[in-house]
Amino acid sequence: MFEAVLTLCLTLDAGTCRDTLLPGYEAESRASCAEALAAAPPDPARFAPLAAPGEATCREAAAALEVEEIAPGVFVHSGAIEEPAPGNLGEVSNMGFVIGGASVAVIDAGGSRAVGEGLWRAIRARTDLPVSHLVLTHMHPDHVLGAGPFVFAGAEVVGHAGLGRAMSERRQSYLDSFARLIGPAAFLGSDVPAVDDEVEDSTRIDLGSRVLTVTAWPAAHTGTDVTVRDEETGILFAGDLVFDRHTPALDGSLRGWQSVLEDLQATEAAGVVPGHGAARLPWPEGAEPLVRYLDTLAADTRAALNGGMRLGDAVEVIAEDEREAWALFDAYNARNATVAFTELEWE
């Protein structure tokens, strides 16, 4: 398989460049790929303010992300349980796609354009159907910054009613942080996308004889969480409303998250795809470690408040009993304790 690439460089620093995949030009031969480029040459202005010092060319396709078929037509890539770094390019969250009769929907896109390109190649290795939709389960950068290839290919971006504003407000912070963590050259071309369809309650996506239901939730993990249910198989993509092994990250409402989890556990599902960890968890028992962690976080926070502890002292002990159960505990637990303390002190 051959694919088209365009070298993009930082406008003010021609020494920082990256070969960027141009989705939609895939072909079995180099000549066919070149013919497709000649017939519909890409407009470099679409990548502004990045500069394209040369023309698009065709080459053998680079490696695709590994994905697991967890149910017929439902594929998941399990991200590394790590912080974003040059070695993983921001591939630190779970992503997936569902193949319908007429098109494909992608659920989350990873933490850089490079990761999104790997997911695109995984899709193309399994179907040539168009990618009609990209559903972003929430605003966090490790789930949204790889959207570029899917937007370039014409996918409709779907998310929570507050997602567009939330990403816009945090855009520069996300870009600066991930460029620093991953490296500016490897991160080149990554960005947050515009949201085309903001979901207030729920919406249905018809992929051709296959329907996905996207449901918006009240503030929980964040204020912008949605889930995606494949009605054919009963698989539920939960985004970061469900964590596995990776320490949960609280960026919304502790009480809200506990309430949403209770509702989700009462929902029938053949399996759940968490935002981090295993490709598929049994349901509802797959949520039990997260429920325990959030309950401990709440109980310890209330005990600290009742005991008159100051925030700086409280974060050192809240949920400490959970340390051995989770990876990246030091990176997230103190932050969670701070959010919980701030929320619960006004009960």
TrEMBL record:
This is Metallo-beta-lactamase domain-containing protein. NCBIfam families: SoxH_rel_PQQ_2. InterPro entries: Metallo-B-lactamas, NDM-1-like, RibonucZ/Hydroxyglut_hydro, SoxH-rel_PQQ_2. GO terms for biological process: antibiotic catabolic process. Residues 92-276 form the Metallo-beta-lactamase domain. Belongs to the metallo-beta-lactamase superfamily. Class-B beta-lactamase family. It comes from Roseivivax marinus. Pfam families: Lactamase_B. It comes from the Bacteria.
